[in-house]
């Protein structure tokens, strides 16, 4: 049995937005998963928060019987023109 629903996932430093749509591109629902404090904790705690959030998102996708998901294509690079705090925040995502 194939699923008629897919999910679009938008990743940000402090939240993950998930939209559920049909294969015919009809929107069904959106939900935002917040990860408060992600920018203030050390890398090991950040990994733990990300893992907990991933479990919540997977449970949500399973509840909708999602057959596939789409992630945005992004690349981070160290840029000397950006602020030091921004570079620190995105470093763990760019590994």
Amount of helix: 25-40%
CATH C-level class is Alpha Beta
Intertermini distance: 37 Å
CATH-defined superfamily: Ribonuclease H-like superfamily/Ribonuclease H
The CATH architecture designation is 2-Layer Sandwich
Poorly predicted sequence stretches spanning 5 or more consecutive residues: none
**Compute the gyration radius: what is it?**
15 Å
The SS-based structural class is alpha+beta
Number of helices: 2
Beta-strand portion reads 25-35%
Mean pLDDT score, rounded?
A: 83
Would you mind describing this structure in some detail?
With 95 residues, the chain is an alpha+beta fold. It has a single domain, classed as Ribonuclease H-like superfamily/Ribonuclease H (Nucleotidyltransferase, domain 5). Helix content is 31%, strand content 28%. A four-stranded mixed sheet has the order 3-2-1-4, covered by helices on one side. Strand 2 (15-22) and strand 3 form a beta hairpin.
Structure summarized in a few sentences:
By secondary structure, the chain is an alpha+beta fold. It has helices at 43-63, 84-91; strands spanning 5-11, 15-22, 27-34, 68-71. It is elongated, with a radius of gyration of 15 Å.
